[in-house]
Amino acid sequence: MLLFETVREMGHEQILFCHGKNPDIKAIIAIHDTTLGPAMGATRLFPYVSEEAALKDALRLSRGMTYKAACANIPAGGGKAVIIANPENKTDDLLRAYGRFVDSLNGRFITGQDVNITPHDVRTINQETKYVVGVSEKSGGPAPITSLGVFLGIKAAVEFRLQSKQLEGLKVAVQGLGNVGKNLCRHLHEHGIKLFVTDVDPVKTEEVKKLFGATVVEPDEIYALDVDIFAPCALGGIINSHTIPSLQAAIIAGAANNQLGEEQLHSQMLADKGILYCPDYVINAGGLINVYNEMIGYNEEKAFKQVNNIYDTLLAIFNIAKQQEITTNDAAKKLAEERIMSVSKSKLKEIAA
Ligand code: NAD
């Protein structure tokens, strides 16, 4: 990978490679854009197949955070950190060493919980730095509000694509029954939606089957199901040239970050197939809204009001896409870039005054 060329093309401000021998730690902190505020982005711990794969993930996820904050109207920039490690090798020493790297950025980067990082881990990181959110869990963690945001996004997509406010009787396929996926299933079940679910962990599928009467399918069967909505809530890259031809859903609306294998190519393929794609960083902004509200002093009413905006923002994006004949992915970027540009311009005016 041509590092500086890639970073310039994607618009990143700074990449920090964190390395230590004792404990043995390899982590990457990517800061994409701080125009709207300090870079916010959760930390993911994952046994990446290569360092390049880890870097790519950090670069894409951090850029997604910039767009996410801008679309959610949160005064924060975009960042993301990845720790390259097997979850079995995660220790408090490793997390504390990572916390010291975060602290060295002095508030330019504020982090929280993502895949393979637990609330306990966040508190461990907090022993070394105050620049970590989701510690106090005043709200009960980000997953409930994220899943509510995804549910509201599904409502907006159904209204736009299926021209209906009726959810009862619709069929939704949920991939991944972790913190977000399981909560999403609860919302959908409560609204009379028929669930088809999958997870690599049979304990989780069994639980959701019992709780919500879901039909369980094998992980590779989830794409081709005859459903109205596909909700990816596991890992990224699952909407690609291999899976798109088999998709039968009219709507893709889920929490997973970076769902599109290749943004331009695959968002266009979805549009060509008449599938309405809810851009991941817009529909899953509930987590960011939640942690941001915890950071400024949690007020449940305010946080939930902001999550409700996901519904209106998505409808606005769908309409921009329709009017300008562009993909919903491009429409969301347009909306985010316009918001960032207007703040950047007013900052320049302030400096000039
Ligand atoms: P999680 O780790 O709790 O759950 C992920 C689930 O996906 C696990 O149950 C795992 O077994 C399952 N899974 C992994 N590979 C799979 C596969 N190939 N097929 C089916 N299932 C598979 O994570 P989470 O907090 O629920 O987050 C889910 C996704 O949403 C992630 O991409 C995360 O980045 C994103 N997200 C989460 C939040 C949040 O508030 N937690 C906010 C925004 C975005």
From TrEMBL:
Catalytic reaction list: L-tryptophan + NAD(+) + H2O = indole-3-pyruvate + NH4(+) + NADH + H(+)
Keyword Nucleotide-binding tagged: yes
GO molecular function, one term: tryptophan dehydrogenase activity
EC numbers: 1.4.1.19
A single BP term in Gene Ontology: amino acid metabolic process
Keyword NAD: yes
Top enzyme class: oxidoreductase
Record family assignment: Belongs to the Glu/Leu/Phe/Val dehydrogenases family.
Name the UniProt record assigns to this protein: L-tryptophan dehydrogenase
Species this protein is from: Mojavia pulchra JT2-VF2
Gene (UniProt): scyB
